[in-house]
């Protein structure tokens, strides 16, 4: 493998990694832990343990990445979070 091919391969890997977006969930003073957990289980297909851990991180840190993927996969999930009254965005 030549140097030019290796550099091109590294660029291709970096481009694929950059296509990953994240849903960030933010803390609020309105929603209960149970509501956040149940919504994460439904909208993001979290296990109960994952959802509980994310809700604790959001509570204490103010925000948490709850799902990563391509934008087409994340948009409907983020809309479900928003429709449930949670504060979230895709970055």
UniProtKB/TrEMBL annotation:
Alphabetically ordered keywords of this record: Hydrolase, Protease
Superkingdom assignment: Bacteria
SUPFAM superfamilies: ClpS-like
Pfam families: ClpS (PF02617)
InterPro entries, alphabetized: ClpS_core (IPR003769), Ribosomal_bL12_C/ClpS-like (IPR014719)
GO biological process: protein catabolic process; proteolysis
Keyword Ribonucleoprotein: no
Domain Adaptor protein ClpS core: 16-83
Name this polypeptide is given: ATP-dependent Clp protease adaptor ClpS
Upper taxonomic lineage: Bacteria, Pseudomonadati, Bacteroidota, Flavobacteriia, Flavobacteriales
